[in-house]
Structures are given as C-alpha cells and as structure tokens.
Amino acid sequence: xxxxxxxxxxxLALEFMLGAVTKFWPGDTIFSSAYSVKFAExxxxxxxxxxxxxxxGIAAILLVIPNKRTRFVAATTLMFVLTxxxxxxxxxxxxxxxxxxxxxxxxxxxxxxxxxxxATWRDLLRAPAAAAGxxxxxx
Length: 139
Known about the structure:
Low-confidence stretches: none
Radius of gyration: 18 Å
Shape: elongated
Strand content: under 5%
C-alpha cells in the first residue's frame, strides 16, 4: 500500500510540475493555447500565470517529500489554486472537456489533505523533532 501511495504522490507531482512548466511556457503548448492569452481571456493579468505556475511547482516538489507536514501544505496549497481554477472555468462557461481536471484534482487534493492532516495545528509550525538518539546541536 505504501508503494501505491508513493506512486500516486509522484504521479500527481509530475502532473502539477507539467502544469507549472506550461504556465511559464511563452507560447502554445501541446495541450492548449498560450496561458498568457488564456489568463487574459479569463480576466486575469497575464503575469498571474507565473504566480499560479510557481505555486503548482512548489507544491509538486512538496508532494514527493515523504513527510506528512509537507504533503499537507502541498495539498492545501493546491486546493486553493484548484478552487480558483474550477471557479474560473465555471464563471467563463468553458466546455467540460477543458474544465473537468480542476474539480477532479480538487477532490483528490482534499482527500490527500485529510489523509495528511496534522494532529494539531502546532505541528505545522513546530520544527521537525530530532531523530531518537541523535543529540541536538549545541548552542
């Protein structure tokens, strides 16, 4: 089961990394027209694609780090991005063939966020505990 989950995290990370690369790509991609044009058509400034692409890329890297805290942060970050994407597609009445991925990935990220939910919110702010038997560095 652990290998299956690791494979899922890597697969999703690759998907979002590919999405991040396409946001930075200057022209048309094999998937769609240029994101600089698409963001403008959706009513956003063209530079917003860089913000979205950076968030997707950082979250993709965090997804493959085998730590519940980083995976939780990655999943919740992607939930915010995907909520914006799904809302944008709905408001702009984009065809379903272009719009299904955002809500589907939003549900997946919601499940992963719940699966990696911290025991307490303080766990998100706390430095990782030192390994058992490893002395802490002297001050």
